[in-house]
Amino acid sequence: MHLNQSLKAVCQSLVPGIRATLAAALVVGAVLPASAATIDRIKETNQINFGYFPEARPFTSSSTGGTPEGFGIDLCQQLADRAKTALDVPQLKVNWVPVTKADYLTQIQAGSVDLLCTPINQTLERRADVSFSIPVFPGGVRAVMREDAAKSLRDALNETPASRTLWRGSPAVKILGKKSFGVVAGTTSETWLAGKINTFKIDSKAVPVANYEEGIKKLVDGKIDVFFGDRSLVLGAMDVEAGKKLIVLDRFLTFDRYEFALARGDEDFRLLVDRSLSDSYAASGFGDQFFKWFGEYDAKTRFFYDWNVIQPK
User: Fold this and answer.
1) DSSP labels for the chain?
2) FRET label pair with 132: which of 29, 138, 156, 203, CA 20 to 30 Å apart?
């Protein structure tokens, strides 16, 4: 009897329960994500792959095509420096991988990217695909408009008494009617805006844009009335001329925590990331690091990072 025939006979002789168990094991092995053991892969290759959005200043940007820069880049570089010692890979090479909003999830799931260094806000839908670090930045949606916008429009979207619900009833709905609102396509801001327009039956339209730069340009050119986005990203996308013509309102319309995304089910690597972030936040020079990219490191901001530090013991 040939060898393959012998193997076939043995397999056929297995009781159904054992065959089912073996089949299940093979299926599980086949669907395990490529990034399930990130630390092992880093040790084996002496490389770590950091993904980033090239047009997300001041978090991450790469206008020259060289090494990217930004707040998220600094934090990830500090992670790489700590990993050299923690994982005993002194020659660790950092690969900066530009990604897009359309492919970053698949890049992480496939193991092509170990960590997304552009912080994003987690949602329940995103958590079904990837995991997240401890919070990296306190953010949220604000309204941006031209300096010459009507005072009534500014008042409708700016600070209001706590008893007044945004966009509910007259005159707020009337003021916001017949307006065009810009928002970056594929973001949670777009989902939030669509929900507001639908809930309050506002006779206005949402204008999706590819990125913050396009949204700012449309606003300056008068093609939209309001642009909704995170203040830090808005300021990062503005040039000097736009800065003279536009204002970012003070009111937070949403409250978001931005975090680094990584593969699901990889708790060892997540622990390494969270330990590095906690060390960075607790370092004496962190305030200066924050100031470099965002300006004033005030008491509220310091409290946010103090609150999110995970103690070593």
Assistant:
1) --HHHHHHHHHHHS-HHHHHHHHHHHHHHHHS-TTTTHHHHHHHHTEEEEEE-TEETTTEE-SSSSS-BSHHHHHHHHHHHHHHHHTT-TTPEEEEEE--TTTHHHHHHHTS-SEEEEEEE--HHHHTT-EEEEEEEEE-EEEEEETTS-HHHHHHHS---TTSPTT-STTHHHHHTT-EEEEETTSHHHHHHHHHHHHTT-S-EEEEESSHHHHHHHHHTTS-SEEEEEHHHHHHH--HHHHHHEEE-S--SS-EEEEEEE-TT-HHHHHHHHHHHHHHHHSTTHHHHHHHHHS---HHHHHHHHHHPPP--
2) 29
Q: 66-102: per-residue pLDDT in tens? A: 789 999 999 999 999 999 999 999 999 999 999 999 9
CB under 8 Å to 125, separation ≥6 — which residues?
none
Query: What is the pTM assigned to this prediction?
Result: 0.81
C-alpha angle with apex 117: 116 to 119, nearest 5 degrees?
Answer: 90
DSSP string, 158-192: S---TTSPTT-STTHHHHHTT-EEEEETTSHHHHH
pLDDT in tens, 162-177: 444 554 555 667 789 8
| Structure tokens given for 185 | 């396509």
Residue 231 tokens, joined:
């203040």
Return the amino acid letter for 132.
F
State how far the Cα of 96 lies from the Cα of 184, in Å rounded to an integer. 24
